[in-house]
Amino acid sequence: MKLGIILGILVLAVLTPGVCQAVIVDYFYTDGTIEDGDVYDIVRVENDATVDVLGGVVSQLYGGDSSTINFYAGSVGSVSIQNTSVFNLEGSLSSWVDMSSGTFNINGGIFEDEILATRGRININDGIADFTDSVITNFTIMDIYGGVVSFDGMLFDRYAVLNIYGGEVTFQRSAWGNAFRLSNGAFNVYYSDIVYEGTGGEISGYRLRDGNLFMLDQFTEYEIGRITFVPEPGTLVMLALGGILLRIRK
Questions:
Q1: Cβ neighbour number for residue 60 with a 10 Å cutoff
Q2: Can you give the residue range of the structural domain that contains 169?
Q3: Terminal-residue alpha carbon distance, the chain
Q4: How far is CA 170 from the centre of its chain?
Q5: What is the CA radius of gyration of the chain?
């Protein structure tokens, strides 16, 4: 009986070798590359190293200890950006991202997935970023300067800050019923002029500092009330002059 059980286990091990394989962790302590044909379980980039990901397959990609990862191509299951490390996105990435005290720069390409950021920095300069049900928390700062950015449910919590300077930015309703949630977070929109429409001169949106429009029809009145609209210095002067002229007319 025991012999039959042992033989059964041995047969199962032969037929399903992946079950018995140990997870391998590969460390990059010096500069390197990951290219087409490379396959890794876990990659950890440490010790100020810079690694260019040009292709290949990585189940888990980890950056720590002030390292830098430049992602151009390849397949990654999940990304972890920790301990002042920097992740520069130039290619297409559809992976869950976990951040803690790191920096995520979207300089081009496409990002499509969920992100959990704590005490980090997210800079969106170009490309396409589609965030789904993400959480930005614990003093994390997200700055949007350009690109096409969409949020499908977003929570800014515990003194996290979202700053929008440019780009095409849209918010969609989530399962929570809000385009975004602010819980001790801040949402600032930096604009160059105000967009009016209708005979009553209603404010329909704002022109961002790069010329793109930030429209208000995607928000409820409550949500709009939680956004801080910050005019650039030239616009601020014009608004002040307008106020002075109104006083003179009176």
A1: 17
A2: 2-249
A3: 103
A4: 14
A5: 24
Amino acid at 19: V
Cα angle 243, 248, 250; round to 5: 95
Q: How confident is the model over 42-99, as pLDDT tens digits?
A: 999 999 999 999 999 999 999 999 999 999 999 999 999 999 999 999 999 999 999 9
Q: The whole model's pTM is what?
A: 0.84
Q: Characterize the bridge pairing of strands 213-215 and 202-208.
A: antiparallel
Angle at 154 between CA 149 and CA 156, to 5 degrees: 110
Query: According to the model, what pLDDT value does residue 246 have?
Result: 44
The count of domains in the chain is 1
Provide DSSP, 69-110. Answer: EEE-S-EEEEEEEETT-EEEE-SEE--EEEEES-EEEE-SSE
**Residue 40 CA to chain centroid, in angstroms?**
24
The helix (H) or strand (E) run that includes residue 168 is strand 168-172
156-176 tens-digit pLDDT: 999 999 999 999 999 987 777
Distance (Å, whole) CA 173 – CA 132: 11
Asked if residues 61 and 43 have their Cβ atoms less than 8 Å apart, the reply is: yes
- Helix, strand, coil shares of the chain as percentages rounded to 5? 15, 50, 35
Helix (H) or strand (E) holding 165: none
State yes or no: pLDDT of 241 exceeds 70: no
